Fold this protein.
Amino acid sequence: MSTPIHLEGTTLEGGGQLLRLATCLSALTHTPIHITAIRGNRSGGGGLKAQHLTSVQWLGQASHARISGMGLKSPEITFMPSPTTTNGGVGEDVVIKQSTPGAVNLVFQAILPYVLFRGGDEKVRVRITGGTNVSNSPSYDYIEQVLLPMLTLIGIPPIDAALHSRGWSQGGAKIGSVTYTITPLNTKLPAFLLTHRGGVKSIRATVIAPKQYECQIAEELDVMFEKRESRFFGTRDADIGITFEDSQHEKRFYLLLVATTTAGVKLGRDWLYDQGVRAGKVDTVIASLVRQVSNDLLSEIEHGGCVDEHLRDQLVVFQTLAEGRSRVYGGERKGVRLEPSLHARTAHWVAEEVVGVEFDEDGGCEGIGLAVEAEEEEKGEGRADEELVEGLKKLDVSA
Ligand SMILES: Nc1ncnc2c1ncn2[C@@H]1O[C@H](COP(=O)(O)OP(=O)(O)OP(=O)(O)O)[C@@H](O)[C@H]1O
């Protein structure tokens, strides 16, 4: 087996995304890696948290990897996937349990490319428990309204999302659960171009907050939309929808705004306010929530790019694995191209180190054209593995 590629975990963003992307690419391409100073740029000493352990453990089982260094707070791991191709997909039902409200969608982010590119004839239902609305991670609502439609736009078979219950880390930890139904790819993902944005044709607001504030938040949103209509929609008629859900706790205020363009592009921005509201301060919290999220969405619309800040780094893995040159236009300000976020630059770096692709300044990348393993089996290189599928069906991480 070749010497593992070394990745220094404090590079650029230096958080958990570096670990997730590196292990996923390693598992898919059978490339051994060694990551040191894991999450070294995070406060509290870094190292593996439960959510990271869950993802690495699942990918390790799926790729028959030998892993050393697994454990809570561990600062380094070596991940050595089996060099032999295995086939047969990951099974039809995958259940990943977290006993804390660790972000469901960061686990999903880690394993989705593996499920897609591993191939297989059957749809895969992935049920993950944990937090569905957790700060600094994609919420269930963002995944359902932004990431999944954008993946369909770039050529991934539509993925269905079903929310069984919400999971929160604030207002008393509550474990939620989600099922994503994924159709694995049956051939290489062709290169994609996300370069034409189109004009904004509709905006949808998703509000999750204590029931008694429903009317007040709706009014605040109405006033904001009226003031900013021409900045959002230009000369087009405004098409606005607001949905409200009771968050059932004073510490849970969430707002997501998603713009849909004439080219089918989705741009989203959100904020989870989970600090608790001091007596007499609820007006300020609601006003800040609406102002902050609408400012963020406006700035995403005004740069003219085809991805919002968060989606940009989440598409890097698909550019890397597609066949041919994919390009994602990230927008510009005052005639100057917008720099990718630190998360996006970190993802570029990881992909460059692990599989040798190169990202250019225009958001372009020649992908490696990863063959789905079902294709390889037809050529006689794969082998079915019932035992593995059984193991992956249930992963229960109670760390
Ligand atoms: N509001 C949001 N909406 C959508 N995606 C988000 C949002 N906030 C963060 N993300 C995405 O979540 C991922 C967070 O990665 P990051 O390394 O910061 O998290 P992490 O694994 O929790 O690690 P750490 O605990 O080390 O911060 C990135 O892909 C980022 O784009």
Remarks:
- The first helix runs from residue 16 to 29.
